[in-house]
Design a protein that fits this description.
- The protein has 257 residues and is an alpha/beta fold.
- The protein folds into 2 domains: 212 residues, NAD(P)-binding Rossmann-like Domain (Rossmann fold, 3-Layer(aba) Sandwich); 37 residues, no CATH class.
- It is 47% helix and 14% strand.
- It is built from 8 helices and 7 strands, in the order βαβαβαβαβαβαααβ.
- The protein has a 7-stranded parallel β-sheet, with helices on both faces.
- Helix 4 links the parallel strand 4 and strand 5.
- Helix 3 packs parallel to helix 4 and helix 4 runs parallel beside helix 5.
- The structure holds nicotinamide-adenine-dinucleotide (NAD).
- Nicotinamide-adenine-dinucleotide binds next to helix 1, helix 4 and helix 6.
């Protein structure tokens, strides 16, 4: 796979799945724009390290995905945006009647609205350049539900709907839009959920991992960031030119249940 000459903007890419996707795209030759809401030396060093490791250009651009103007500014500052990966995401676990309103608002903003804003910003230049890929990192929770994650599940179902709509609006353009729906991938987001889940279910860590988190993942294995990244690269390949408006589930069989 040769993505030389393509620039990929990956939101929320200073850790976890976003970083794994950025690494696989760089390994395929893409230049990178990394992003998060922080602005630290570690963030800049991360971009420099990837540039050296893969022989591509890599920049870090701070932009808070809760802020529509900053979503647009990220794409504008990137200059080129051939591949847009909407990956930034946050989570909160609580019963719906106790769900803090500000957490609901921020989860919808980061996990759903940011994808709308960055896509709106990126599509004109994708159309003008004659090639584009929008890849939204949704979740099995964009297709199914679990208790205590109302905002996250509402946002991820929204991302799947946005994906289909953008695919139809770009169907005659050289642009595709798809969603990847991972099951559980062991990253900081998942690590952070474990104490909450232990509290909600009254279980120890090992029981929560096997009986709650991987209960619906028939393979009983977490997916890996390399697998999500590899699927992203595939969606950028010529073989995927007619794949648009769909979801690719990487969930060890979860959605087959
Ligand atoms: P993570 O916490 O490691 O990464 C989340 C990223 O989003 C980080 O880089 C963080 O800095 C960034 N981010 C958070 N708020 C932001 C903001 N306001 N502005 C800009 N960046 C922001 O989590 P992860 O597990 O790698 O999750 C990445 C994506 O994958 C999320 O959309 C998540 O919903 C999705 N996902 C994760 C899993 C899983 O099991 N880990 C499963 C399905 C889907």
């Amino acid at each position: 796979m040769n993505l030389r000459g393509r620039t990929a903007v990956v939101t929320g890419s200073n850790s976890g799945i976003g970083l794994g996707i950025a690494r696989e795209l760089a390994n395929a030759g893409a230049d990178l724009v990394l992003n998060s809401f922080t602005e630290t030396q570690d963030d800049r060093d991360l971009a420099d390290g990837l540039a050296k490791e893969f022989g591509v250009t890599a920049r870090y651009i701070r932009a808070d995905m809760t802020n529509p103007d900053e979503c647009h500014a990220l794409v504008a500052e990137a200059g080129a945006c051939d591949i847009l990966v909407n990956n930034a995401g946050i989570q909160h676990v609580a019963p719906v009647e106790e769900f803090p309103v500000e957490r609901w608002d921020s989860i919808i903003a980061v996990n759903l609205s940011s994808a709308f804003h960055t896509t709106a910003a990126a599509l004109p230049r994708m159309r003008a350049s004659g090639w584009g890929r929008v890849i939204n990192i949704a979740s099995v929770h964009g297709l199914t539900a679990s208790p205590y994650k109302s905002a996250y599940i509402a946002a991820k179902h929204g991302v799947v709907g946005l994906t289909k709509t953008v695919a139809l609006e770009t169907a005659e353009d050289p642009v595709t839009c798809n969603a990847i729906c991972p099951g559980y991938v062991l990253t900081p987001l998942v690590e952070a959920q474990i104490p909450d889940q232990m509290k909600v279910h009254g279980m120890d860590r090992e029981s929560v991992v096997r009986e709650v988190m991987l209960a619906r993942q028939p393979s009983k294995q977490f997916a890996t960031v390399e697998q999500i990244g590899g699927t992203t690269v595939f969606l950028c390949s010529d073989a995927a030119t007619q794949i648009t408006g769909t979801t690719i589930n990487i969930d060890g069989g979860w959605t087959a249940l």
